[in-house]
Amino acid sequence: MxxxxxxxxxxxxxxxxxxxxxxxxxxxxxxLAEPQLRCSECYGAVRLHRxxxxxxxxxxxxxxxxxxxxxxxxxxxxxxxxxDAQLQ
Length: 88
Prior knowledge:
Elements: E1 3-11, E2 17-25, H1 26-29, E3 36-38, E4 46-49, E5 60-63
Antiparallel strand pairs: 1-2, 1-3, 4-5
C-alpha cells in the first residue's frame, strides 16, 4: 500500500487543530519519529518498508497481521472485512 493513516495533530479543513487519523503517503510517514500507523481501509496495524536500494521495490506498508478481507493486502480474498484488531 502506498498510503497509511497516521495518528497525530493536524489542521482540519475548518482551521482547528485536531488529534486524530490523517492519511499520508508512506514516504512522508517514513520521515516521522515513532508514528502510530494503521491501514486506511481496514484499520489494522501496518509496518513501513523503505524502498529497495536496487529500485526493485518501492517504499510501501504491509499489514502486521495478514487480513484477507482488505483489498490493500496482497492476499485479498475478494470479500471486504475490517481487521480483527482495529486501531482506534
